[in-house]
Fold this sequence. Notes:
globular, 42 strands, 13 helices
Amino acid sequence: MTVLDREPTPAGAVEPVRYLHVLRGGGVSLVLATAVDGLPEVLHWGRDVGPLADTDAEDLLLALGRPVTPSGFDVPWPLTVLPTERDGWEGRPAIAGHVDGEPLVPRWRDVEVVSESGSALVTATSDSLTLASAFTLDEAGVLRVRHAVTNAGHRPVHLQALDATLPVGERVAEVFDLAGRWTRERTPQRRALTQGAHARESRRGRTGHDAPTLLVLGTTGFSDDTGELWAVHLAWSADSVYRHDVLAEARPVLGAGELLRSGEVVLAEGETFTSPDVVFVWSDAGLDGLSDRLHDSLRARPGHPRRPRPLVLNTWEAVYYRQELGALAALADTAADVGVERFVLDDGWFLGRRSDGTALGDWSVDPTVWPDGLAPLVDHVRGLGMEFGLWFEPEMVSPVSELAAAHPEWMLQRPDDDVRTWRNQYVLDMANPLARAHVLEAMSAVIGEHHVDFVKWDQNRDIVHAVHDRRAGIDAHTRGVYTLMDELRLRHPWLEIEACASGGARTDLGVLERTDRVWASDSNDAMERLPIQRWTELLLPLELIGSHVGPEVSHTTRRHLDLDFRMAVSLFGSAGIETDITRLAPDELDRIRAWTALYRRERGLLHSGRVRHLDLGDPGLDATAVVARDGSRALVRVARTVTGPRSLAVPLRVRGLDRSRRYRLAPVDGLAVPHGLDPVPPPWLGRGHLELTGAVFADVGARLPMLAPGTAIVLGLDAVD
Length: 721
């Protein structure tokens, strides 16, 4: 929507024409105002202000017009969509660099804004650059911003920053983002908002175990379901900058962009650099409100997984490198018997791969382990009615490998430059078309021969000291990885890909444009997985989050956990198994059969409903609900991590139900009700069910049993009227 606005001008002067461009979607508005001179500015991003009439434009501009502030510039200045010092902005510039040593501070002219429905395109020129900035607000209220700059002059342009920024509400008082490490991804951190220009940089060459994931600015005391929030996510799988600026003379600003190293992007005449998408989300319903919008937006994508997410068995923590047809066939037999739908052969199948010290890059089947090739195993798996998947780490090369010996020039990190290995591996330069073509052909040969259904695409190291064509190489390498993924899927359109990076170090919406799920963590410790998955759910819906039942004793923490607890945690995701189930007792296999049947029965709800994280008033409880969009059903998991402060368990209160409908609450069929610490359980649980209205379940609740640490109960709520 475009609204004409005419500013008052001195008598006899030519009257400048200004416009409002209003993007609306999902209860959100973005209001852009064209400037008299220069780029447009954002007047509002947040709750939908509704349609604006022609007569509203002048008053809105007057209402938000900037005065001249004390001890500042002598004329008002605009906070534009790409702020720099030339505008009067003294925070981190959204665009930076130099042209033959001269600072890149463009004076934009010939500015044009074209808007329709939920999108706007801003174009402009300067002496050295042309700009095209796209703003797209979808029906979920999620805004994507992408900038593209082209060298319009004759001298090279050295680009050092191209961020997307938006002003936020001036009531923001707190900052929230995520951190972490290997096997402990997405650890929340929260702090008071302070004045200044703050930038959080990642230089890991991949998204990172410690990635911010979302940078959130919110009103005081915001929670899972309360508070007004503004958030940003960078849809990019490498170096990043998440930033917020709180300056005395401007509105708070939130933004993100690709971190560009010195000399990494140098544009010759006519060359264009396009930024990764920056995703902005607003919510007036707390953190779960942000997730609602992001989940709805992702589920509306044309390429979003539509068919039911198969229940997976991954062989890694069952056999590690000990691959042998007989043992794997027996594992497949048991997997099919308990209800597994996809069998994934992990690391160790290719030439010379007996440990993590060799063979990456040599993507041909090892004849010493597989004398008849993979066909006997693949045929056996398919004969049992399961899909077949395979592990690759396409971007990496072991120093001890045929590929490293034949093509040392293909490495992104040259061994003769004293670059350290990481997990005994180097990185192939995926910006090198010869290296990329070699990997594509090698992978395609195996995938095509066996019609592999699924690839677990791993990436097991940070990338440092990356050089491509004598320049910093992270940007070019990452775009090469995306190209490789795209070309592989073009050749094999049936193929599904899981993004794994030593667990959850590549969890971003850039890689998810070309993959079907992410592996949330290398930790299969269900206790550790509860917070990892909870905070992964902030960005992603459950069907995109790989979650497996691991061994009784965790590989990464050595913790012992009960099978039912492990199954309850894995249920809320794209579920699977990653342990040697051939060693389980008959009663344990019966419990897994019941659980796989539960997953198949409930995945339609789990993978389409709205996720609600419930604060029950007990810090030792982790409670997650998934509520059907029509309010007809809900599934709730309550897990105890540590003992609580009281001996009387708290009531379960569930948000999101239809308050006027009646619901039947009962334990689900497929997971045992744990023996609580109460000598006598709550009366309703003794009876086995309870019927109350959604309003009562939301505001009053039903008393839970006193769960022991390391146990969980999964309950269903079904509308009965």
